[in-house]
Amino acid sequence: MRAMPVEFWFEFASTYSYPAAMRVEGLAAQAGAKLQWCPFLLGPIFREQGWDNSPFNIYPAKGRYMWRDLERICARMGIPFHKPTVFPRNGLLAARIACQFAEAEWIGAFVRGVYTANFATDQDISDPAILEPIIERFGERATTVIERAESSEAKARLREQTELATHFGIFGAPSVRVGDELFWGNDRLEDALAWYKRGADHPA
Amino acid sequence: MRAMPVEFWFEFASTYSYPAAMRVEGLAAQAGAKLQWCPFLLGPIFREQGWDNSPFNIYPAKGRYMWRDLERICARMGIPFHKPTVFPRNGLLAARIACQFAEAEWIGAFVRGVYTANFATDQDISDPAILEPIIERFGERATTVIERAESSEAKARLREQTELATHFGIFGAPSVRVGDELFWGNDRLEDALAWYKRGADHPA
Question: pTM, whole model, 2 decimals?
């Protein structure tokens, strides 16, 4: 098997990232792939496209469709879903934590915990008080984790990761990179892992 | 089985409508559904969203991704693909024909012929000389068909159909309507027909 990881690029406010984030670790394990969690911010990328809000808010027909589509997807996949009363929620602190601790053993469970708070239990994920119990599930001291995530080093790391996303041609979330190949959307997760497996079976 | 048709809403310039249009008749037949071909124009819908061009041209990262994604999809599905040298192509005349003759026996084959011209053999589908041989394959006189498609009645019909698309909350192509349920994208075709089958198996 080749060492190339499967990179999962996500933003905590992103709706379609929710079912993808809930599924990606299992799908990567099935494919025998090493998964790399790559949080980034959509805000700066959207601003470059002239949007100061989610396109789902700017274009109401698209937004209405997305909420119904997401509800159907989650129902079909058995993923709990409650339309958040605030959208998009500010995922900056959660993204800084995920970026700083991307290699921690608990990263996958943390990411799923934050998405569940946003899209299943309708909680304000920008509030440290919401994130703290999620972090402490893993035996970490929440205050220490949050302090490190708010260091200037951690802030710079997330900024760089967002710049890297743009550099890689990423324009939305979730996105999966397999080598130079980009896949966008929850509905391309399986395609991305099939692409990985084809590469792993027939290395260049 | 209930009489509710599966409506396939498409625009001849739309890239993801291409693989969907090539597949939808077979998938509908497998599901036992009556298929209704609903051509419409994306131009007026995009203009309402403030776009004077395809969003794939306005947002280059999204456009680059789409062409690569479409190439992968067509390769996987065994659908011939050649990136058109002009995009988007003007599908107005073809859409008027498809709208006026939506109930003709040859409608499905005509639609596939036009998409193939645009996305596989890179031809200018706004040119009647390109459309004529496609029409004449079905034993129709092309000049008669085109004349009828350019009547004020046919023009009004396509305008009304585009207004109906907006009314139904359609904002992109391809879209499939099954009753009041909307599905957007080539990657939702199978979901739309599964939705139809669930309704047909358990009528309300």
Answer: 0.94
